Input
Amino acid sequence: MITPADEAFLRRAVAIAARAVTLGDAPYGSLLAGPDGAVLAEAHNTVRRDDDITAHPELKLARWAARELDPDTAARTTLYTSCQPCGMCAGAIVRSGLGRVVHALSTAQLVELNPESGAWPTVAQDGPALFDEARVPVDAYYGP
Output
């Protein structure tokens, strides 16, 4: 359920996205709100500026949370973002331990506004293969 406080944080994420556009960056913005409602960090998309396909604000903030927050605090922290996280960012969010994500635009809505956003090709994957060889470093790291 989206609360009035959630809407206020979403408006801030949208304002971060709008500011990104004025800086020549893509229109995506995010922030982290801690358990007490304080804004912990903010970021916007800098993919073009940094020439880095991973420079999404959600990924930047997930990495920040994983480095800077203890697991209990991360689990009670919310990521507010102007657009639903992509698969790359969603994976990082899960791994960071963040407890909640609230987004303004869904991926479907973004694609309606900008059809090119949904034009990613699929990548063929083959495997698994070489189980006995591939398990050696895993077993060495995690132990029997």
User: Anything to note?
Assistant: The two ends are 44 Å apart (CA to CA). The chain has a mean pLDDT of 97. Helices lie at 4-22, 47-50, 57-68, 71-75, 87-96, 107-113, 131-142. Residues 30 and 81 are 4 Å apart (CA to CA).
